[in-house]
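Weekly structure sync, notes
Attendees: PL, DS, HV (note-taker this week)

Item 1: AraC family transcriptional regulator
DS walked through the input record. Source organism listed as Paenibacillus solisilvae. Sequence as pasted into the shared doc:
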Amino acid sequence: MPDSMFAGSGRPSLRYAGALDMPAGERFVNPLHHNPEEAELMLIAEGEGAFIFDGQRYFAGPGTIMLYNQGIWHDERSHSHIPFRTLYLGIANLQLSGLPPGYFIVRNESPVISLGEHYFSLAQRFRELVEAKHSREADSDLLADHLLMVFLIELARIIHQPKTPDFRPAALASSQTVHLTKRLIHERYIHDITLEELARHAHISPYHLCRLFKKETGHTLFQYITHYRMDVAKRYLTTTEETIANIAGLVGYRNESYFQSLFKRCIGTSPGRYRAAPAHK
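Item 1 (cont.): predicted structure, written out as tokens:
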């Protein structure tokens, strides 16, 4: 891409934005059509499907973004055996330097981009755009268009970055995957967390995630989940008056007796004695 990412005097405008959430057993089907006035983006958060762009068939799964050049004929069909969740945008007045109006990429390039470690930051910007477009606050359209410019700059840097073999060291990519998995655990420890859920959010296989996590941290995923829950429990015990039964529920355990035995095994003392220790008063 040239130094100036955008061409022309106009500015891209967010025409529409939304989310699609299809449960398992239902299939998203959008037969052959085109959008002559908008370029579109679709981010797949969960699920997979077959997509036809300009007569070429592509497969896309979670963690990918699809680039719909303006006016390109396309057909979209999800696989129905798993849920299909996406976010999508329609953009008017898109003009990237060196490309035809309404184009993200040249016509013969693959429109399916695997985001890898960029997925989480881009997904967050995507959600912000959807929220802004549906907001009823004053100047929400202006805010959406400003957010769109930031989003497009980040996206263009990802899809048009130099394709060098060692663009990102494998060790750094592995570290980022583990970091993002930890963050998900920190946010969802109160719920039952499955290996499949963690792997789906990390966009790697469960087997690979287990190996990677153990190599990076020295702990298995479920050892880490347990120890994090115990850290949260210690915080509740020392800073609140919550009962031990309530704390068990707050850190993801329905059975108080199981929580107490697990706490003692991990911490070396019971929750009650931990709370009563002078060092914690």
